[in-house]
Specification:
The protein is an all-alpha fold and about 180 residues long. The chain contains 9 helices and no strands.
């Protein structure tokens, strides 16, 4: 019942638009701040998360620390580009209402990664709001560019063949004898 309301109700559409723009603004400003500062480096954050995976009450799970240590830290140059660019693009997508569901899914992935790394901040709040956007699906982007973009994208994947179809087999004999 609540899912149906989120997906179809006009009041929900307006509420979701406000939530979407708020969440998008948070992501855009975070990403743009990193891009415009000219020197974002995730190495310190990753090393801090790895350090928080030990002790009596670790805030980072061991499996995540292993991923950070053996994949993220060696590939930190990739993450130095991916994180600020991803945050900025997710923010733009949510603010403009373009590929809204996909942008919210990518935001969930980033929030989960930050939460796994032991950073609470606003990540939990944003994650909950993003789940509402994803559950609402198209209704969350209805007041936005998705109103025009998504029908166009669907038309690219669901083009109908305009050529006439034959109703008989090409070599089929047609009975021309009249029966009385």
């Amino acid at each position: 019942m609540f899912n149906n309301w989120l997906r179809n109700n006009k009041m929900a559409m307006w509420i979701l638009t406000v939530i979407r723009v708020y969440v998008g603004y948070q992501w855009f400003t975070a990403g743009w701040g990193k891009l415009s500062s000219g020197g974002f480096n995730a190495a310190g954050f990753i090393q801090g998360a790895i350090a928080n995976s030990t002790g009596d009450h670790p805030s980072v799970q061991g499996w995540w620390a292993t991923f950070l240590e053996h994949a993220a830290l060696p590939g930190v140059k990739f993450f130095n580009v991916l994180v600020p660019l991803g945050e900025t693009l997710v923010g733009l997508g949510l603010i403009l209402g373009t590929f809204t569901t996909f942008a919210a899914l990518m935001a969930i992935v980033m929030n989960a990664a930050f939460l796994f790394s032991g950073t609470v901040s606003t990540n939990a709040q944003l994650l909950i709001l993003e789940v509402f956007i994803v559950v609402a699906a198209a209704n969350a982007g209805r007041i936005g560019l998705d109103h025009w973009v998504m029908p166009y994208v669907r038309s690219l994947f669901h083009r109908k063949d305009k050529t006439p179809t034959m109703t008989t087999k090409p070599n089929a004999r047609i009975n021309t004898k009249a029966t009385v």
